[in-house]
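re the bet — no i am not wrong, look at it urself. input seq straight from the record:
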Amino acid sequence: MLKNKNTFLLLVASMLSVASYAQTAGVAATPDTTNYMQLLMMSVAVILVIVVWVLANVLLMVSKKAVDMSKSAPKVMMIFVVVMGSMFATKGVAQTTAAVADTATKSVTKDYYGGLSYNTFWTMSTVILLELLVVFLLVLFIRNIFRAIHPKEKVLVGGKVVTDSWLLKTWHTLDKQFFTKAVPLDKEADLLLDHDYDGIKELDNALPPWWKYGFYITIVVAIFYLLKFEVWHTGMNPTEEYNAEMTAAKVQTDAYLASAKENVDENTVIQLDAVGASAGKVLFAKTCVPCHLAEGQGLVGPNLTDDYWIHGGGIKDIFKTIKYGYPDKGMQSWQTTYSPIQMQQLATYIRTLRGTNPPNPKAPQGDLYKEVVASTDTAATKK
């Protein structure tokens, strides 16, 4: 093969290209560090050089059988590849010279793209793109010459030439081998069974390969599933996975609720413990005493210690009253003054005032409130 002068020129161009890559790599990489990005790009470049060499030889072999137009194609292609290889080599030498100059002046170059410098990365990327372009052109030339040597058969249908594209031919081949495994119409008579149902005959067709192999895969998966979950016990079955996910979800929910205590509202508020009530007592003394007095017996506002409530005496009712207020009755809204947790503390303390019987209580106002305890809810509800 080396006796062919065109092949020899192509090998020379390839060697020049590889040499230029090696020079660039020797300068760009540090002595003690493996640059995987550079090795990858170098490998791709070398592989593309080999592909170009193989395709060029195929083009030479095919072009020998082509018409006069294709006789000049090998020379043109050889000149093109040699020029491209020389350009690659010149660019690599220029990069090497620039890198040596930078090393001599001890200038610092920033690394990008996996350790490659900006210039090196884009130079090698350009080389690879140019090689891909050469591969594309070679494949295109080979395809055109091969079509000229082996033209498609012309099929006339209705006076028009009908030819299947390579895409349709490929699909028909795949469909016949892997999807339907269909039998040609002219051979269906050989597959007819003796069964006859009201004139409907049955063909003894094979199962579609995709369905058959899919069934085989389910059998393999079932065996693996049985071994994994019932014999080796190396994984959780669906019930165990569900329980584990529910447990993890509960942990996440509890963590969220613990960090979102400030998000309580009139629908989710509950009565707090003694610590919460004590915090509410401090807020009551600071805000509510002028209208309800220190012990909640009432002054301008209603008595908070009896069983009569104007807007309900449950924890949710009291929270709502504190949050939104009733300006028409002299009760202002406190949601801009206190946080939700503070209003919950305040409502909890007010609930503890019931039945304390302070001196000089104000006359009852509103409706009698009685609370009942539901079987599924311990919070007070209005009857």
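see?? Residues 263-382 form a domain with the Cytochrome Bc1 Complex; Chain D, domain 2 fold (CATH 1.10.760.10). told u. also The chain has a mean pLDDT of 74. so pay up
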